[in-house]
């Protein structure tokens, strides 16, 4: 029963979430084009932010429905068998569109590897969440991972759009011939992709400060809020975004050189790396804050003991 419930809920949730997000993205891109706004700046963060919310909401509704009707033994196997039977139909439909067929053939590997990379971040969170020195880490993890993932997804889409406009797959422009460019050329020049990287990097600090303030208003003193922790938290966010933006430039160049679409192959890897890097840096941030606080408490205890009677 549990296996049937899990399989039916996950399959139906994946179908409904993909349908809802696909329709939403089409509407967002068309609306952005009509308003004269770059869809790369809007569609990518909306997909990244609303993807989890929509998927979890649908999963909660679908799993509750199947659990209430668990006495109907045929319902959940029927859903699983129905989707298996429909698979050849979807493949035949996709064959009518060669670009989509290419995604169906080669788009699975980045998604699966991204899930594996992201799961290591989950392991870090699972090992630390129950320990006292990491109290509050579960609240900040989605924030640091979400901010980094959204910013790098925007940059990846912008670089990919730039290459689609000014080059052909397999051929890199003259200024992007190096696979491992100098970081200064990415963050310190007036070139269009460098300018967008600078803007996104500068958005990391105010973005984290806003979310940090919201968390403090909701949770109160139960989360770390000292100046030292805030500094280390912002530093962790900056390091994460800087590394991701540099890797975005590298991966886009490598995939474009292989005549692959960076939107399909780079964004999953980078968001997975964002989760792993964000969770790891956040754990280090909490650990350093706990060590500094413990050292200060020990100094405060030892001073009266060593003083004169």
Task: Summarize the model shown.
The protein has 309 residues and is an all-alpha fold. It has helices at 2-34, 43-68, 75-94, 98-106, 108-128, 137-166, 183-187, 192-219, 227-257, 262-306.
Largest sheet: none
Tertiary shape = globular
Helix content bin = over 70%
Query: Low-confidence runs (pLDDT<50, min 5 residues)?
Result: 305-309
Structural class: mainly alpha
End-to-end Cα distance: 72 Å
Mean pLDDT: 86
Beta-strand portion reads under 5%
Radius of gyration, Cα only, in angstroms?
23 Å
Structure annotation, total helices: 10
Order of helices and strands: HHHHHHHHHH
What is the count of β-strands? 0
Structure overview:
The protein has 309 residues and is mainly alpha-helical. It is 80% helix and 0% strand. It is built from 10 helices and no strands. The longest helix has 45 residues, at 262-306. It is globular, with a radius of gyration of 23 Å. The chain starts with a helix and ends with a helix. 28% of the residues are buried.
């Amino acid at each position: 029963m549990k296996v049937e419930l899990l399989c039916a809920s996950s399959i139906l949730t994946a179908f409904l979430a993909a349908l809802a997000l696909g329709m939403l993205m089409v509407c967002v891109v068309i609306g952005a084009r009509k308003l004269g706004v770059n869809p790369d700046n809007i569609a990518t963060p909306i997909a990244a932010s609303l993807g989890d919310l929509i998927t979890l909401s649908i999963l909660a509704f679908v799993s509750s429905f199947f659990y209430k009707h668990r006495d109907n033994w045929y319902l959940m196997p029927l859903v699983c068998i129905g989707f298996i039977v429909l698979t050849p139909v979807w493949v035949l439909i996709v064959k009518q569109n060669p670009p989509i067929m290419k995604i169906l053939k080669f788009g699975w590997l980045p998604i699966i590897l991204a899930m594996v990379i992201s799961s290591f971040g989950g392991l870090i969170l699972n090992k630390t969440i129950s320990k006292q020195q990491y109290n509050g880490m579960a609240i900040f993890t989605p924030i640091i991972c979400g901010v980094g993932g959204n910013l790098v997804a925007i940059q990846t889409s912008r670089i990919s759009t730039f290459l689609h406009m000014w080059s052909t797959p397999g051929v890199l422009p003259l200024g992007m011939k190096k696979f491992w460019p100098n970081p200064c050329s990415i963050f310190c020049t007036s070139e269009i992709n460098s300018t967008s990287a600078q803007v996104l990097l500068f958005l990391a600090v105010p973005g984290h400060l806003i979310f940090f303030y919201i968390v403090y208003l909701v949770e109160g003193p139960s989360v770390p809020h000292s100046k030292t922790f805030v500094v280390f938290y912002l530093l962790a966010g900056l390091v994460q975004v800087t590394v991701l933006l540099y890797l975005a430039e590298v991966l886009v160049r490598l995939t474009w050189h292989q005549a692959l679409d960076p939107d399909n192959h780079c964004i999953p890897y980078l968001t997975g790396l964002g989760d792993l890097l964000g969770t790891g840096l956040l754990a280090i941030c909490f650990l350093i804050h706990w060590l500094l606080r413990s050292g200060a408490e020990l100094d405060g205890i030892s001073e009266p003991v060593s003083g004169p009677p």
